[in-house]
């Protein structure tokens, strides 16, 4: 993703905001990419710590990208915003609770969403240029992204002061208020980061730090505590009105600009968090209650209009000039019931669209539904699967889903379905194609999905209908780390192993290589049984020997083409598929097409394709399982 650079360097998981032209404002996709990478690194022993920095001098991250929130919100679509906030807050909690050191380097502006990324880690670095702020009350929100917890824990009543005035903290102020830990001059950041990458040891941060510069905020602490301790917006306003000083004049003007409802709710949130000695999760839960309602009942859309869209700086706030009723505060902060924010470890149901419910898709969708996910399916044919709701079209099944899975016959159909569903999918959702298709189609669909702001994975499977039913498939996946991480929990349900093979198309490449081996092996297994028959060797004896000797293979041991021998397989069911011969032919053609374009010599693959072509097109193999090659060989003679 161009706006954020995520990689591993040495022992460090590295995240660099690289959208300096927009002050590194964080979009939903950027947020999800950070989330996915940090999840992978948490369990990766090679990653000792995470280092987050940003390009450009002006900002680490000046906030969340709110244009899209405004756009959707003014059209009456509150869901997009709620989802953005929900997933962003989950990431904030994840960073705060991260089991490895997280080191952030915050030059210039770090505001709102940027605080959520930069100020919850274990080692938070600032320099002379740093300006940290929670500006939410100015746009009709409350300090969020876990910022309310930092404000509640700041000394005295700095929290109310910073939240209500939206004031900016320089390096010394941020260290005093608990938004940063270390003052390190910018000139030494590059060396320090290199050391962190090479050693994986976060102790280097402290050894580079200089004493914190003096804090202007600290000098105002007496005034701040005196005027901001009243416990309500009315009391704070009255206290400021009762004294004439430079401090009270500036502070009154700041409060005048901001949303009264947001300020009153902020005071109440800080009170509750202090009283309960709140955790990051409690803070985010409380914030989410407000932001969930902010578009419909708060001043958020008006605040964005005035500050960012029309830029008239003249927002028409609710309760302007009057007192904010307690009931309004209680309403904004009331629990959300079933819509409440949940965190990792708390059961979370995903909304999944599943398109293509044939031999493979149907049992895969059933397993997802059984695991508690909300699955909506679509197939051209009439299908009914326990626990899966059926939609009238592919687009309807995809709408509003976090993940859409496709399990379709070929690349052409996949391209047609993708063209229909990509426009219907929400930004940030994942498009996971599990069909076996040509590498070109996989890459084309992934490009299209990514251009529409989706995560894309090609994840063909191995394991057949038996594996799909038992939830023991192997997934071979291509796509970004973020996309893979999003789909991984679902692969866990539908399969026993998922291998991230590389970029888009890599999953299909692995699949066609595997199936070239499978096709050729099935043929030789069938011809060996036919030969054994003619040599008078009992099939069971042949199985007993080969399945435990060097000729063993999946086609012999797990999917034996001889009826009554080995575990149950399509051979025991009159060769009804299973894995149809025409699908095997499809995969062999894909392998030869790929071999052709990559200039690879694959004589066994080519012969396997030729035999399956003959079988499917001239010998009634179509509609039979691919192991029905055995009865074919039984009837044949040499020459
Ligand atoms: P299938 O023919 O049983 O299922 C495909 C389903 O897609 C059908 O139900 C069909 O009605 C539906 N479909 C077709 N066009 C559609 C459209 N435009 N919109 C919605 N639905 C549509 O095939 P399968 O065996 O389930 O295989 C699916 C994919 O999995 C294939 O790409 C195959 O190569 C791959 N695969 C199959 C096996 C296996 O053992 N069957 C194993 C590994 C991979």
TrEMBL record:
Originating species: Antarcticimicrobium luteum
GO molecular function, one term: (3S)-3-hydroxyacyl-CoA dehydrogenase (NAD+) activity
Coiled coil: none
One annotated GO biological process: L-valine catabolic process
Top-rank EC class of the record's enzyme: oxidoreductase
Keywords attached to this entry: Branched-chain amino acid catabolism, NAD, Oxidoreductase
Catalysed reaction equations from the record: a (3S)-3-hydroxyacyl-CoA + NAD(+) = a 3-oxoacyl-CoA + NADH + H(+); 3-hydroxy-2-methylpropanoate + NAD(+) = 2-methyl-3-oxopropanoate + NADH + H(+)
Lineage: Bacteria, Pseudomonadati, Pseudomonadota, Alphaproteobacteria, Rhodobacterales
Protein name: 3-hydroxyisobutyrate dehydrogenase
Gene: mmsB
EC annotation from Swiss-Prot or TrEMBL: 1.1.1.31
Keyword Phosphoprotein in annotation: no
Record-stated family: Belongs to the HIBADH-related family.
Domain 6-phosphogluconate dehydrogenase NADP-binding: 351-502
Pathway: Amino-acid degradation; L-valine degradation
A Pfam family the protein falls into: NAD_binding_11
């Amino acid at each position: 993703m161009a706006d954020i650079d995520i990689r591993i360097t040495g022992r460090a998981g590295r995240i660099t905001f690289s959208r300096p032209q927009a002050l590194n404002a964080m979009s939903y996709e950027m947020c999800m990419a950070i989330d996915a990478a940090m999840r992978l690194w948490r369990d990766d022993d090679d990653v000792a710590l995470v280092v987050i920095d940003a390009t450009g001098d002006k900002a680490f991250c000046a906030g969340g990208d709110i244009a899209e929130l405004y756009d959707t919100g003014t059209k009456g679509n509150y869901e997009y915003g709620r989802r953005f906030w929900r997933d962003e807050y989950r990431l904030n909690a994840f960073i705060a609770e991260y089991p490895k050191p997280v080191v952030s380097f915050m030059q210039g502006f770090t505001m709102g969403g940027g605080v959520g990324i930069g100020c919850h880690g274990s080692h938070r670095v600032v320099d002379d240029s740093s300006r940290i702020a929670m500006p939410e009350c100015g746009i009709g929100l409350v300090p969020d992204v876990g910022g309310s917890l930092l404000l509640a824990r700041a000394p005295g009543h700095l929290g109310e002061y910073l939240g209500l005035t939206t004031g900016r903290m320089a390096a010394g102020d941020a260290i005093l208020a608990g938004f940063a830990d270390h003052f390190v001059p910018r000139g030494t950041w590059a060396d320090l980061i290199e050391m962190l990458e090479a050693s994986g040891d976060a102790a280097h941060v402290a050894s580079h730090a200089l004493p914190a510069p003096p804090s202007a905020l600290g000098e105002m602490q007496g005034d701040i505590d005196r005027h901001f301790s009243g416990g309500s917006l009315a009391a704070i306003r009255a206290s400021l009105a009762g004294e004439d000083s430079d401090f009270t004049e500036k502070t009154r003007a700041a409060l005048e600009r901001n949303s009264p409802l947001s300020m009153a709710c902020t005071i109440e949130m800080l009170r509750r968090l202090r009283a309960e000695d709140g955790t990051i999760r409690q803070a985010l839960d409380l914030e989410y209650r407000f932001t969930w309602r902010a578009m419909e009942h708060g001043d958020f859309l008006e605040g964005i209009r005035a500050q960012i869209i029309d830029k008239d700086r003249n927002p028409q706030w609710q309760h302007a000039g009057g007192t904010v009723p307690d009931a309004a505060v209680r309403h904004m902060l009331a629990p959300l019931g079933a819509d409440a924010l949940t965190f990792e470890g708390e059961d979370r149901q995903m909304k999944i669209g599943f398109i293509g419910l044939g031999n493979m898709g149907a049992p895969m969708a059933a397993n997802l539904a059984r695991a508690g996910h909300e699955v909506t399916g679509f197939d051209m044919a009439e299908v009914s699967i326990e626990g899966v709701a059926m939609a009238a079209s592919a687009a309807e099944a995809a709408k509003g889903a976090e993940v859409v899975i496709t399990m379709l016959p070929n690349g052409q159909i996949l391209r047609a379905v993708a063209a229909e569903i990509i426009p219907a999918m929400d930004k940030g959702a994942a498009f996971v194609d599990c069909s076996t298709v040509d590498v070109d189609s996989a890459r084309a669909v992934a490009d299209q999905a990514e251009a529409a702001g989706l995560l894309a994975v090609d994840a063909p499977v191995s394991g057949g209908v038996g594996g799909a039913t038992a939830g023991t498939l192997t997934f071979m996946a291509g796509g970004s780390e973020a996309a893979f991480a999003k789909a991984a929990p679902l692969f866990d349900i539908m399969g026993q192993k998922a291998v991230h093979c590389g970029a888009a198309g890599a999953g299909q490449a692995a699949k066609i290589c595997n199936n070239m081996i499978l096709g050729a092996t099935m043929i030789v297994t069938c011809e060996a049984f036919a030969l054994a028959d003619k040599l008078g060797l009992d099939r069971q004896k042949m199985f007993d020997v080969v399945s435990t000797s060097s000729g063993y293979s999946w086609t012999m041991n797990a999917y034996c083409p001889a009826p009554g021998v080995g575990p149950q397989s399509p051979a025991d069911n009159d060769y009804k598929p299973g894995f149809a011969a025409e699908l095997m032919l499809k995969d062999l053609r894909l392998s030869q097409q790929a071999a052709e374009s990559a200039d690879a010599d694959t004589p066994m693959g080519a012969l396997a394709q030729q035999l399956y072509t003959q079988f499917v097109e001239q010998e009634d193999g179509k509609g039979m399982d691919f192991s029905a090659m055995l009865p074919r060989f039984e009837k044949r003679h040499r020459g």
